[in-house]
Please model this.
Amino acid sequence: MSQHTLALVDVVDLDTYPIDQPESDGYRAVVEHARSGLRADGCAVIKDLVRPVALAQLGEEIADRKHTTHFSTQVINPYFHFHRNDEWPDRHPMNTFLERSSGFIPGDSWEASTLMRRLFEHPDLARFLADCLEIDELHPYADPLAGLTANILDPGQQFTWHFDTNEFAVTVLVEEADEGGLFEYVPNIRTDGDEGFDHIQEVLEGGRRGVHTLDLRPGDMQIFRGRYSLHAVSRVAADSKPRHAAIFAYTEKPNVIGRLERTEQLFGRVLQAHIDAEEERVRTDALID
Model:
């Protein structure tokens, strides 16, 4: 079934969020609300965007593919490095390592017929997200593993403080934990001209200055600029149900493939497409990855 046969009204609350009507006042209001949050602190939440019936189907699709999850436990710094760097002092973000224990269902687990993929690739959603982000156009991230994923946090797991390599990410919470599993972030803690090491180290050591905690609920969509904002998902309690979230990745240019080392860390494998892309890659900023 192609993306164009998806009846968006069955998935998205179009009465509240008319993302299929870009000329309407309702559409402009939703976009302006999202832009306000993104301008203020790099984060926008669209509450209850996904209808309950569609949310249940997404949950079933995740459960059916959970056996393909690549789980890993690593001790990393915020840049996904796990080796000490002698160029920096001991008490420094480059040499502060915290546990990341989580899993990802890879992109090649999602057949074209799944609701997850059809929603991810729907042109109305991509146009709406581009308008929220104030960019000309968006394309589904072409990476065969990282383009469309589900992040899995089972009981006892956490996704520690880190930065993204992509400029932004789009997440739909599908199942929330009973306890823990909270999304936390420090907006714009670094810039192109300043890595913000002192503030980052403070947060890594447990400081709460500037930390925002989101009260996300299943069906909420989050648009987040994670390249400049330190962020984490807190540990899911040992006696809790897991936390499942769909992650939709988009790029401003078509046919973008992810970075080799980060792909290996998150999915436990790389494909020839990643090797080829790494040889041709041109950096877009000088920030530490």
Notes: Helices lie at 25-41, 52-65, 115-120, 123-133, 197-204, 260-267, 272-280. The chain has a mean pLDDT of 93. The domain at 3-280 is CATH 2.60.120.620 (Jelly Rolls). The chain has one domain: 3-280.
